[in-house]
Amino acid sequence: MRISTSQIFDSGARGIGRNQSDLFKLQNQLSTGRKVLTPEDDPIAAAQALVLTQSKAVSSQFLKNQDDARGKLSIAETQVAAVGDLLQSVREKLVQAGSTVLSNSDRSSIAQELEGRFSELLGIANGQDGSGSYLFSGYQGALKPFSVDASGAQYVGDNGKRLLQVEGSRQIATNVSGKELFQNIRNGNGTFVTSTDGNGSGINQGTGVIDQGSVTNLADWNANHPSKIEIRFSVVAGVTTYSLYKDSDVVPFSSGNNFVSGQAIALKDGSTNYGVSVAIEGQPLDGDSFVVQPSTNESVFTTLRSAIDSINAGIGSVASGNSSTEFVNSLAGNLQQIDQALENVNKTRSTVGSTRSEEHTSE
After folding, report:
1. Residue 198: its pLDDT value, please?
2. 20 to 30 A from 25, CA-CA: which of 7, 139, 263, 325?
């Protein structure tokens, strides 16, 4: 076979071209630090590199989300702690207002201070984070969650949790809903609530003060309790007795029971045990009555507004409905509810704090 001069030339030129291409590729590999410059260099390695790059980007986003979560949780924890400090201050003022040596003018001054605390609490509840989102509005970060109304404050947010993906299989909530922190607070002792009733008038004549009660068997209460139990007193010839009524019944299910101040009154209907008891200190008069009802949710703003109204009313005559007995019973109920709110705040703060700590340890 004859090889022409042009063939030799073309072969040499192609060799030089290949060498130049290989040299150019090697120079690119050295300058970029990458072995695979295009998918055609090594399709399998290129695919693996793409997966690695995507994984790196996802991991970088998770780290950013973790930082964001820590920041948001830190703000939430600070604000929840502020709520706890404020409610502790409110509690101290309520205890002070209950002193019998104070005048109604003194109590009015305390009520004014509590109005300031109410405004502070509302300000915290409507607080925002660094991005301008409301902290306690649930999902609706752009919506101001609380507005003042006759009962205290109305909540217009929701109970949603704003979740951030911090790991491949883990999301965490970075907010606390206002409903959870301020609204869903069980009144009374959390199982039932006690109050004066005054035989339906809401005014007791005697000095009887009812405690928050005790739960002796929660299962019995949950299974058997009526919607209301009334303890109605009768005084005949100097002997004080009480009868027990349930719901709207006009006939008692237990009657003629001797009353001893401070002694526990077990609430049961024959063989049906309601699993709770209460104690009444002092001396109720004929017609005085107290009620026991299942606990419901009460807003801390409602509790604070009720306390302010009660303190403003002060202590007057029995006929006016704000006797010392009524005042003490009302204030005791408000104090109990503030304690329930404080317990809820501490529980919420503990949850937020532990979540934030987990994020620190996951770095």
Report:
1. 57
2. 7
- Here the tokens at position 308 are 């302010």
Sign of the dihedral defined by the CA atoms of residues 334, 335, 339, 345, in that order: positive
Q: Which of 182, 282, 273, 297 is nearest to 219 (CA)?
A: 273
Looking up tokens 């989300």 gives: 65
What 3-state class would DSSP assign to 181?
Answer: helix
Whole-number Å distance between alpha carbons of 357 and 69: 11
Residue 131 in tokens: 């991005």
How far apart CA 147 and CA 125 sit, in angstroms, is 10
Structure confidence at residue 165 (pLDDT): 73
**Are the C-beta atoms of residues 179 and 138 closer than 8 Å to each other?**
yes
- Cα–Cα distance for residue pair 93/114, rounded to 1 Å: 8
Which single residue is written with the structure tokens 């994984």? 55
pTM: 0.78
- Average pLDDT, consecutive stretches of 10 residues, N- to C-terminus, the chain (363 residues): 64 66 61 59 56 59 72 88 96 93 94 97 92 89 93 91 73 86 94 80 84 96 96 96 95 96 95 96 94 96 95 78 84 94 93 72 52
Cβ atoms of residues 29 and 35 within 8 Å = yes
For 327, other C-beta atoms within 10 Å of its C-beta total 20
Q: Report the alpha-carbon distance of residue 341 to residue 324 in Å, rounded.
A: 25
Q: What is the Cα–Cα distance from 287 to 197, expressed in whole angstroms?
A: 10
In this prediction, residue 319 carries a pLDDT of 58
